[in-house]
Protein: 2-alkenal reductase (NADP(+)-dependent) isoform X2
Amino acid sequence: MEVSNKYVVVKHHIQDAPEESDFEIKSRALILSVDSGSNDVIVKNLYISIDPYQINRMKSNDPSQTSISFAAPITPGEAIDGVAIGKVLVASDNGKFQKDDLVMGVFTWAEYSLVKEESIIKKLEPSEFPLTYHLGVLAYAGFFEVCKPQKGENVFVSAACGAVGNLVGQYAKLLGCYVVGCAGSQDKVTLLKDKLGFDDAFNYKEEKDLTSILARYFPNGIDVYFDNVGGEMLEAAVANMNTFGRVSICGVISQYTDAEKRSSPNMLNVVYNRINIRGFLAADFMNVFPDFIAKTSAYLQTGRLHVIEDVSSGVESIPSAFVGIFNGNNVGKKIVKVAEE
Amino acid sequence: MEVSNKYVVVKHHIQDAPEESDFEIKSRALILSVDSGSNDVIVKNLYISIDPYQINRMKSNDPSQTSISFAAPITPGEAIDGVAIGKVLVASDNGKFQKDDLVMGVFTWAEYSLVKEESIIKKLEPSEFPLTYHLGVLAYAGFFEVCKPQKGENVFVSAACGAVGNLVGQYAKLLGCYVVGCAGSQDKVTLLKDKLGFDDAFNYKEEKDLTSILARYFPNGIDVYFDNVGGEMLEAAVANMNTFGRVSICGVISQYTDAEKRSSPNMLNVVYNRINIRGFLAADFMNVFPDFIAKTSAYLQTGRLHVIEDVSSGVESIPSAFVGIFNGNNVGKKIVKVAEE
Structure:
């Protein structure tokens, strides 16, 4: 049996902010069978996670210089891989995954993904836990495992209406922290304060002196900074950190479309205040997945956690979805729904 | 009884590199008694540690914005405090320290120090362990406790002929690491390779592209970077770090005399390689003091560790000693000997 498989490619390398015209939707026949003895599986994609870091892979000279498979350069004209949730359509014959298993993994910006079993990060148990919410593990692991927050601490979150930031802020509130977020519009600020329960929030686009504004929102200093943006915001946060403050570097979106926009945090502050700055990937924390599901389920059931998703439909919507996250169009997690569960 | 007490002051705030003419030697009578019921003690200084961080305290606008007592701003015309080793000359009457106790603490750039008992960091046991070597605890704690090195890892040390760097490199070799250091002259490079047993060393002043030179010395990447300098060297090291690499920020000497010289490490590397960048102060690790003494004593007794000190004599020599460390004049730990033990 054979299906037609729509997928997304970049036409050429992208150096700055992406535009929809940089992308192309292609289609190719896919035979729904895998080689006997191989580890190949075919996944029917349900939800594709649209993540800003992918832009780095589209550059001609990937600045991350990494050997991490899912961060490897993307070749123009070829299928793009990324984190997604899908259903096993054709299993390999080694029996590790079965047909119809729900799985999260590194699949393809496409309707169907032909991948190695190793690309499956996790089998998802059928549960009350909505499928797309599994993508929140990055926020959970980054906040609890990297930031090691304590009740009562002062937490600052940038890109606080983004996929990761909004969850981090909510987890922080639920832990009993004082939480301030920044975002790029007044609507987002209102959402953070009125719906998501942040203690305060501000629109960074309206502020000139980020160090002063943070000093105003944090008269007692910042204990934890969850950084999604890098650049001047990271400098301002470091200048306001308390002794033994922790900075987790989840993303550097200010630098993704402008390689010159490096952050220069004052290392004197880092020494005197014994600040710990740490980068991380969700993949390192799959051991906390059960905790994440348990705690998050409980919060959802009692209505104490809001999951903010921004969902568009169909493979054709992937380019505009991706371009949009660099313009701040999305509110919450940007997801493309490819097929019905 | 009364003595004449020579001490050093800065005449005015210092913004850039210090010069000897910025300092003045003063003298004042000191009555050798302390108020009954107070915590005051009088210490006869034996050795004064000359440390680059002090320059930050001499600026009109201390950039470290810290509330740490020993890093607080220095007022022109007034006595300067700093880490030193001395002997209790007059004890307070609360009995915590006795006359003739050997002590390490935050004393004064002077012959005698009238300080609170709280300024004494540690009572030193009379032992075979040379007094000045106690100042090496910063290197020991920073390397073992902050960098958490493993045998076989690749370690890079900047300012490797400096007070801290030379010890870190030697501890790393003794642990079984591959160790490369950088320094500012060919003589220092020779010392590192021929006497201190570094696997390799280079003169950073002769290199244009620090990222490339580090890639050459570390074809398998850097696991641990012990940073004493900040600036471009920190950027180059971060670009060469391995996955889960650790950077300990001990000092930022490149920035001390040029506030514009900030470091802009690529945060994309920090994320993808899950790099941990951490500032520290020796004061946080006084719990490892016994380990430090035990391990270091053993190494010294078997001749496996060289203690490189650069000692000048007398309070009058403090200004030139201090100015010299910014010119790279010192080899190893810079100490001013104020009195005979």
